[in-house]
Amino acid sequence: MTTTFKAAELALPGITSLQPYQAGKPIEELERELGIKNIVKLASNENPLGVSPAVQVALTTAVKGLARYPDANGFYLKDALATKFSVDASQITLGNGSNDVLELLARTFVQPEHEVIFSQHAFVVYPLVTKAIGATPVQVPAKDYGHDLDAMAAAVTSKTRMIFIANPNNPTGTFLTKQQLQAFLDKIPTHVLVVLDEAYYEYVPEHERAPSMQWLDRYPNLVVSRTFSKAYGLAGLRAGFAVSHPDVADLMNRIRQPFNMNQLALTAALAALLDEKFLADSIAVNSRGMRQLIDFCDAQGLNYIPSHGNFLTIEVGPQAGKYYQQLLEAGVIVRPVAGYELPNHLRVSIGLADENDAFCAAMERILSS
Ligand SMILES: *Cc1c(COP(=O)(O)O)cnc(C)c1O
């Protein structure tokens, strides 16, 4: 390596200030480090039921076609999504995970002179895509760990181009009601795109869900983002999508990589969408597991942030970092959230009953030692 080569001086200014996304620790990595098996991973809000049997069958067939390029327009998946959500296929943008869609949105609409608003304790990808462009991130202090929509609306200026809202939010699990959201949308001028990230939508009880897809007719500046990574159990394949005004989708489509959703992901997402039983089972497992973790917290006198997602963020105190390490040594991977300005909390994904038990037992041992 020559010493005169300084890559950072050649990079875009916004990039040098970024830290790479910190993913949950992979099971294989901890296995290697500790030389143990039976590791429980409750760190990335994945579906503990795994992949739906119907998806597995569809994938077996799809493998045979992999010599061909994928369907660049995802015709069958968009058609099924359009039917399910009563929207037009021209409103849908498919993504290599919904992270891809969030980045596409920022790259399509946000310029360096713009401001992008998001909440404290919200998903880390929002500041990441903003800073990568060199735009100005505007982080609005949270209220009760969740989005303070009044303060976010008040932060809008003539330079604001985008607002990210996660509902439910990750990593706090906080939730905004449809009334709160609609009152907010009524206040936001149309030069600002409101990106409503509903990655955990399926876990919200039906009567509480916002009719976000129906709102698209009324709010042309609204973009709804969803994913197959959580309740649909396809985090490893990368499949997500946005639904928006057709003109927004058309513009995003111009910079989208032609095959950003691969053929296995297209096939699996379609099969997952049609497998309503697996989705219902996933939601039921989540409700029971949430109860288990809440009962544990109550018994231990631990505070937690009431969650509408598939995870619970528990206040374990200033030793959170140490507990995270001790849990790893016990073979349980959870997620430290100090990077989200929550240094006293740990985020625990809801697993199967015995996985939740493993966390509770290890945590109880750690707390009492
Ligand atoms: C998990 C998650 C996503 C989904 O990301 P994918 O790229 O679709 O896997 C999006 N937003 C939030 C807030 C999330 O927690």
UniProtKB/TrEMBL annotation:
It holds the Pfam family Aminotran_1_2. Its cofactor is pyridoxal 5'-phosphate. Keywords: Amino-acid biosynthesis, Aminotransferase, Histidine biosynthesis, Pyridoxal phosphate, Transferase. It catalyses: L-histidinol phosphate + 2-oxoglutarate = 3-(imidazol-4-yl)-2-oxopropyl phosphate + L-glutamate. One of its GO terms (molecular function) is pyridoxal phosphate binding. It is an enzyme of class 2 (transferase). NCBIfam families: hisC. This is Histidinol-phosphate aminotransferase. The lineage of its organism: Bacteria, Pseudomonadati, Pseudomonadota, Gammaproteobacteria, Alteromonadales. The gene is hisC.
